[in-house]
Please model this.
Amino acid sequence: MSFLRISSLKSNLNAKIIHVSLVKKIFVWSLLFEPLQYFIMFPQNASGFGGNISRLLQFIVIFLLFFKVLLTGKASLAKPFSVNNRGYAYFFLLSIFAGIIGYLNGSYSFIPSDILLNSQSNVRFIVTVLRPFFEYFIALYYFVYFVVLAQYMLFTKEDIDYFFKWFKIVFLALLFIGFADLILKTIVSVSFLEEAVYSGINIQFHKDLSPGMRFHSFIGEPRAAFIYLFFGLALLSLMDTWNQTKKLTLLLSILIFVAIFFTQAVSGILGLVCVLFLLIIYYFHLFSINKKILFLFSILLMVIFIVPFLLFPSIMYDFIDEFLTVRIRGYLGASIYLFNNLNEGIEIKSWLSKVMNNVYPIWHLWTEVRNFNFFHLFFGNGLGSASIINTYYLNSWSISNPNSGIVRMLYENGIFGILLFITAFLGPIKRMSLNYEIYRKLTFYTIVLLGLYFGHRSSTLYIFFGVALAILRYQSVEIKTKYNSIKS
Model:
């Protein structure tokens, strides 16, 4: 069964793009700019809803759609428990349930001592009330705008063609700019991207004004560029399937992977570990009996080696000191130093202090598990609670979410929430796919972006999922139309 409407001639593509409405074009550009965090129009502050160019375009789209509804008096509302939306609806409801229980159990009541001493009630309100509420709004907004709305805005072949055409142009431009900047830094130790920031141009770099010899282009931090490059690879592959072309050449693929390598993103490595784990789990049922036994045995060995370090750190350190190399002792020694200091309530002042926002949520969960409290491990503490527990341990009022997506989701959503989140993205693809090859490709890339999302949170997962569902919906509608025309 054909996935695409082959009858459309490429020569007519440019003429058809003219018929894409203005609001749809603005919507497409809001998708294109969303992952590009280099230009900030107004700071994130406490809300966490940064003001990049995409936010302005999103506001315009929502305003135009709202104005259209007022003029026509017609509105098409998405059903939250439809086939495509119910997985995320269940995830969101579970998050609300976890948040209510977390509130009753005090998960939102951890207040840093400096706030209590200075009686900063306004700061306390922002950190413990406004911010968690806004986290729920963001979680719902991302899915509604980038997934649900995408299926309405990318409704025709012309709409999807317009998106792919400009995505390819923007992606290749970012790739060229990133390599040019990297080469310039290598030759003369000057970055024109970073010089633009210091030269008085009215832009603000997201966080790190000097990433060093790392690829980032206009995407933002290198760890954001790491995910975006995989996102681009996935969309270019999907575009080839859509247009039945092979524009994603071997040379282009190599350039993308070279750029990925030069991001040198540690969170990207964590994301790839999550990707590997998800791929193994998802395709586990396809393994032979021998491979299944080998995989389970490997997991058992990992548990056997990891648990003693948690329960008997001093004994295990002596063992390491006796048998292993100095370098390995250094890394594991740092881990044991971290565990002992946390266990004794000693402040972390070493280089590990820079990553403690990813450690404290896990540590707090571990202290609960040691006391046989497993509820938050399975159901989470509620959205926004990870930042609150970090403010408590770091003794700071500022918003401090974990950089690691898997750490944040494990603390806020628990194991069941993570499973529902994965199902929310993989389930609709399986149900909507009418072609096995397309199903296999979309499933693979969705798993990759899910794993990378667990390494570092990014809107690219939502954007790719929305585009994929728009294409699958178009396929389904086209086949039904052809069937009805033949039947009549």
About this structure: Residues 1-17, 195-210, 309-317, 319-332 have pLDDT under 50 and may be disordered. Residues 121-153 form the longest helix (33 residues). The first strand starts at residue 40 and ends at 42. DSSP finds 20 helices and two strands in the chain.
